[in-house]
Amino acid sequence: MDDFLEIDGVKLNSRLFTGTGKYSSDELIPRIIKSSETELITVALRRLDFNSTENNLLDYIPKELRLLPNTSGARNAEEAVRIAELARAAGCGNWVKIEVISDNTYLLPDGYETAKATEILTERGFVTFPYINGDLYIGRSCRDAGAAVLMPLGSPIGSNRGIRCKEMISILINEIDLPIVVDAGIGKPSDAAVAMEMGASACLVNSAIATAGDPIRMAKAFKLAVEAGRQAYLSGTGAVLDKAEASSPLTGFLNV
Amino acid sequence: MNIKVNGKRQVIDQHISILDFLNQNKINKDSVAVELNRKIICKDDYSDVSILENDVLEILRIMGGG
Known about the structure:
heterodimer; A: alpha/beta; three-stranded parallel β-sheet; 36% helix; globular; B: mainly beta; two-stranded antiparallel sheet; 1 helix; 7 strands; 11% helix
């Protein structure tokens, strides 16, 4: 059975999205892409450093991958729109992860400004992926504003704390008919599996791979976990019971 | 001629285009986005748009991010 994720008419076979931040060297990125089998990768946009000798990041990303630039650094909708337009002008295409953050401690997204940016950017022809708290009302606002995907956080960005917002994400999955991609805070492959077992459409993982002892191996571990979680979701997990229910027959015992 | 580039003052030659500026600084035009006085300039227009006195130029590149 074909099981792909379709976004804006594009079919993605991999449900693992990966980021490109925090790597010790950009030269690792092609190996991460190969090992994770990801088909969508996030990037950011920053002022050019005239003294930097770094190569162009895009040289390390195969052309067939979908780019998902983020609007990190934006503190309100207006800045997010500006960054998204610049990313498009830089050659990143029209998919954009909308990140609007003014809180520097927890890096939690500003839902109101995110929904506003979603509306403006959707009207300007972008395919929008708003990064949000697992809040049903914000989720609905973004959906009504034209979002293609919702990206609720599992826990704060880069914290590796796992799916702390499980119940709230579950509500989004149940109530909003858009792909729900769990983003941020996924620390271990088991976290990604939990998200996928719940019915998330995909996971975005960056820090947990980039900061692992062996990022290449960890990328593969995440690929397997996302696939396992997806298969479990499609299979339908068994009921959770309060009491034991024997797996072996309770008759025909030896009479000892 | 004085201009501001990525928040810093710079003195550059007069009558140069955005493409000239990028070439002089060994910047690959395909790897950046350029904003002149808050207006995004399309790559195809880099050679046609001149930089003028007191212009504010922003040059951005793709970086790693999540």
